[in-house]
Design goal:
CATH class of chain A: Alpha Beta
Shape of chain B: globular
CATH superfamily of chain A: paralog of FGE (formylglycine-generating enzyme)
CATH topology of the largest domain in chain B: Immunoglobulin-like
Structural class of chain B: mainly beta
Order of helices and strands of chain B: HEEEEEEEEHEEEHEEEEEEEEEHE
Number of domains of chain B: 2
Largest sheet of chain B: 6 strands, mixed
Structural class of chain A: alpha+beta
Distance between the termini of chain A: 57 Å
CATH topology of chain A: paralog of FGE (formylglycine-generating enzyme)
Mean pLDDT of chain B: 92
CATH architecture of the largest domain in chain B: Sandwich
Largest sheet of chain A: 3 strands, antiparallel
Number of domains of chain A: 1
Number of strands of chain A: 7
Order of helices and strands of chain A: HEEEEHHHHEHEE
Number of helices of chain B: 4
CATH class of the largest domain in chain B: Mainly Beta
Low-confidence stretches of chain A: 5-20, 201-220
Number of helices of chain A: 6
Helix content of chain A: 10-25%
Oligomer: heterodimer
CATH superfamily of the largest domain in chain B: Cupredoxins -  blue copper proteins
Strand order of the largest sheet of chain A: 1-4-7
């Protein structure tokens, strides 16, 4: 009986495993400059930012793309990565340190990665993580409007999309139309690391909070003070989720994409 | 030695100050910490036995302050809001409400909060029984796959709400993330025969009431404070039919009733009953012979009733649309012999008209 079982296991090991899904080359899309009125307050003041044009990855980085990066940069693999740069949950659900074990790896956004690892990936593309304002500016756009944030039906749909994946891993990229810049899946699929997420909120004393401290968001009522429109719940959930993370933390719902100067070769 | 004495005196004065009551109404003994009541925890730490609602942990019989450890886990789950209706709940320990916690005044309570690996959001806990920043919220934020802990001394007896306070708190509470904690006075509450734990909460769904399928939060309804559902213990029918509560004639039952909200004040009432004793607001004052009790969001009440006649008694939010159209309805089935001297049917029959009814005026088209 034991032998039969061993034989089965051996057979299973010898069966050809599906090759890792091919990683599509990351594609950058140019986002023209313009003006952003941020949804986040600076203390009590509204912030208006003049945005320079930038190039942003069309889609969140996929599991397959990140796996290719890990094969080329073993120092960022689970088990090799320095504990300062990643916690025990870093890519913990992956089958092996370089294989997500996901038949849909080419279309699923990578999550469970630390801010440090996300930054290193972008660095490998001669790019960087977007700033919060860059993400916010890009994500404000719908498929027909550069700033669709005031659209209540859209807000509601974004919140519903985020809720409907309770207990599940994120869904697949590309199920919805791109926005006016040609960017996909900025709002409904996952939350995304930004370069300066730790400084997004001044704390109750007006000082810049340290990463992961959450500052004013720690208290139930205090959080309302951080937002220009506290009723944008989907945005508040995103900001809450990001601001609680230390840079070495990872979360099953937090992935990333990269930005760089416009006009650089793809 | 002198210094130790001075410290002891300072401490004693400090504790006495805690015990004094600024308000005119007398504070019953044992409802607030005194140095005698609330010394260092004694005995081995106690791991709180947590039960799903409507079950209540057993009354506390010990007469000394202890260290109590409470293990909670934030879990985002798809659950049942009504027959055929699913919802994406945020919960403590997988139930709405989260389990009732029961400690004694003066206890040192260690709250351990895990956030399940499969969750998406950070969560935390704000217990209204805590004197401390954010009721513990600031020191209990955990991201998925992390755990945190904090400790507090239960200085004031009473029945208190706890809830997740993570931003946006209205969303976390609207998704069911609340529960309650009883801090018993030193000598406990009067003994009763049965205890039940019920929490009211509203749900704001994109589909209409009872529309089947997976429903999610409707932001606009939440902002307008116009819920689709107002329910007890997290779903329509949690306390009716096969889930109805049961008791016997002659028994005294106690409801630990709290309101998670997030927005509506409950008008808590038992159809066909009068509350013999209530502790309004969950505080130390007793009131008697009460019909309906206001229980605000983030508020609670303890309500006792002696059951003197048999029948099915309906637990409701007396804001009538909520009980008829939104689900705020529970049943307490009381078995026992009829008590005709207390309540009986007399007649129901036709009686003769005083005269012919006038004909309706013909309507003009």
């Amino acid at each position: 009986m034991l032998r039969a079982l061993m034989g089965l296991l051996l057979l299973a090991a010898l069966m050809p495993r599906p090759a890792p899904a091919d990683a599509a080359a990351p594609r950058f899309v140019t986002v023209p400059g313009g003006q952003l009125v941020s949804s986040l307050l600076d203390g009590t003041r509204t912030v208006t930012v003049q945005m320079a044009p930038f190039a942003m990855l069309e889609e969140p980085v996929t599991e397959a793309q990140f796996a290719a990066f890990l094969r080329a940069h073993p120092e960022w693999q689970r088990g090799h990565i320095a504990v300062l740069f990643a916690g025990p949950n870093y890519l913990a659900s992956w089958l092996t340190p370089t294989d997500p074990g996901d038949a849909q790896a080419a279309r699923r956004p990578v999550t469970d990665v630390s801010w440090f690892a996300a930054r290193a990936y972008c660095d490998s593309l001669q790019a960087e993580l977007p700033s919060w304002y860059q993400w916010e500016y890009a994500a404000a756009a719908s498929s027909s409007n550069r700033d669709a944030r005031a659209n209540m039906a859209r807000r509601n749909a974004i919140l519903a999309a985020l809720m409907h994946v309770t207990g599940q891993r994120p869904g697949l990229i590309g199920q919805r139309p791109a926005n006016v810049y040609g960017l996909r899946d900025l709002n409904r699929l996952i939350w995304e690391w930004v370069s300066d997420y730790g400084a997004m909120f001044p704390d109750v004393n007006g000082d810049v909070g340290s990463a992961g401290s959450g500052s004013v968001l720690r208290l139930c009522g205090g959080a309302a003070l951080a937002f220009r429109d506290p009723s944008d719940y989907a945005l508040a959930e995103r900001v809450a989720a990001l601001s609680m993370l230390a840079p070495a933390d990872s979360s099953p719902f937090v992935g990333f994409r990269c930005v760089r100067k416009p006009g650089d070769s793809p | 030695m002198k210094r130790i004495l001075a410290t002891a005196i300072t401490l004693a004065i400090g504790c006495a100050a805690l015990a004094s009551n600024a308000h005119a109404s007398p504070l019953p003994a044992g409802w607030t910490c005194t140095p005698a009541l609330c010394g260092a925890p004694q005995g081995k730490p106690i791991v709180e036995q947590l039960l799903p609602p409507p079950e209540v942990p057993a009354p506390i019989t010990r007469h000394y302050p202890a260290k109590v450890i409470v293990n909670l886990e934030a879990r985002e789950v798809v659950g049942t809001l009504a027959d055929g209706v699913k919802y994406d709940f945020y919960t403590f320990n997988g139930t709405v409400p989260g389990p009732m916690i029961r400690v004694r005044v003066g206890d040192t309570v260690e709250i351990r909060l895990k956030n399940a690996h499969s969750d998406h959001m950070p969560h935390n806990i704000d217990l209204h029984a805590v004197m401390g920043t954010g009721g513990g919220a600031a020191n209990s934020i955990v991201i998925p796959g992390h755990e945190g802990a904090f400790e507090f001394k239960a200085l004031h007896a009473g029945f208190f709400v706890y809830h997740c306070a993570m931003a946006p708190a209205a969303v976390h509470i609207a998704n069911g993330m609340y529960g309650a904690i009883m801090v018993e006075p030193a000598d406990g509450l009067p003994k009763v025969d049965k205890e039940f734990y019920v929490m009211q909460g509203e749900f704001y769904t994109q589909g209409a009431y009872m529309q089947p399928g997976l429903q999610s939060l409707d932001m606009t309804k939440l902002l307008d404070e116009q819920p689709t559902y107002v329910v007890f213990n997290g779903r329509v029918g949690s306390l009716t039919g096969e889930h109805a509560l049961h008791a016997k004639e002659g028994q005294t039952v106690r409801f630990f009733f709290a309101n998670g909200g997030p927005n509506l004040t409950s008008s808590f009432h038992m159809i066909g009953g009068i509350w013999n004793t209530v502790w309004p607001w969950g505080g130390s004052n007793e009131d008697h012979n009460v019909q309906t009790i206001s229980v605000p969001p983030g508020g609670a009440v303890i309500a006792d009733m002696k059951l003197v006649v048999p029948g099915t008694f309906m637990l409701v939010d007396h804001a009538a649309v909520r009980m008829f159209n939104k689900g705020a309805l529970g049943q307490l089935v009381v078995s026992g012999p009829e008590q005709p001297t207390l309540y009986r049917a007399l007649w129901n029959r036709p009686f003769a008209p005083a005269g012919a009814m006038p004909a309706a005026a013909s309507s003009a088209h």
